[in-house]
């Protein structure tokens, strides 16, 4: 039985604010208006909290069922969305409200971070993507496929399981395919690195190699020619430490250190080729890479010099 439409303006207003606050163009002025509306009457807050609770409960419903519910009640306008979201509140049905915003299943968005910026975004299907510094990706959800193009940078994906709609990431020479899992992808210097925290991931290259299957604690690289390396054990704690604003180097080469530090600086950090394979282990804040550069000469037989263009270089003593 379909849920009845709501004749209640408070429920309509609650659903409207719920939808607006999840859109990227939600302004500071609108936030002030929303706060005033929320404080104007206790019932406003009750209705909004109930709708927010339904959104949380939607995580317990299989994604295929959420899409089915939304297709049965496909809105033709934003007004219909408000009515349906309010009807969900009346009926106590935890609808997938993200899919109601994009009822046809077609959704596009561009996400980008600046130097030193980190960002977390929840996608319409409940998947979450965390972007590291200097990252840009294009998202396109359509019938039968959830696609992401990681153009540059690094992102950690927590993908909601949906076997009917695979989640596919194109990153330069590599492609990552999952149905539901948690994993980190780095696209840098024409190569791709993938590390899996939970679940199973398939990594393919543009070369004719067989795809590599990764499970929790495993990782691989795809080189510039699209060749995929065999799966290997990886240090997940070090790889995803950027989420907490940390740079963790576990026996990393100075070439790897320079590449990672460069993501957090306006100008790149270079390393003399004679030092590229020198190993280094330590932990620093990604928000203060100057401290790392100051510490390097105390820890290794190197010096750091600043070049006229503002970049830095690690050179021998």
TrEMBL record:
<feature type="transmembrane region" description="Helical">
    <location>
        <begin position="81"/>
        <end position="102"/>
    </location>
</feature>
<protein>
    <submittedName>
        <fullName>Protein FecR</fullName>
    </submittedName>
</protein>
<feature type="domain" description="FecR protein">
    <location>
        <begin position="110"/>
        <end position="202"/>
    </location>
</feature>
<dbReference type="InterPro" id="IPR032623">
    <property type="entry name" value="FecR_N"/>
</dbReference>
<keyword id="KW-0472">Membrane</keyword>
<dbReference type="InterPro" id="IPR012373">
    <property type="entry name" value="Ferrdict_sens_TM"/>
</dbReference>
<feature type="domain" description="FecR N-terminal">
    <location>
        <begin position="13"/>
        <end position="49"/>
    </location>
</feature>
<keyword id="KW-0812">Transmembrane</keyword>
<dbReference type="InterPro" id="IPR019546">
    <property type="entry name" value="TAT_signal_bac_arc"/>
</dbReference>
<dbReference type="Pfam" id="PF04773">
    <property type="entry name" value="FecR"/>
</dbReference>
<keyword id="KW-1133">Transmembrane helix</keyword>
<dbReference type="GO" id="GO:0016989">
    <property type="term" value="F:sigma factor antagonist activity"/>
</dbReference>
<keyword id="KW-0732">Signal</keyword>
<dbReference type="Pfam" id="PF16220">
    <property type="entry name" value="DUF4880"/>
</dbReference>
<dbReference type="InterPro" id="IPR006860">
    <property type="entry name" value="FecR"/>
</dbReference>
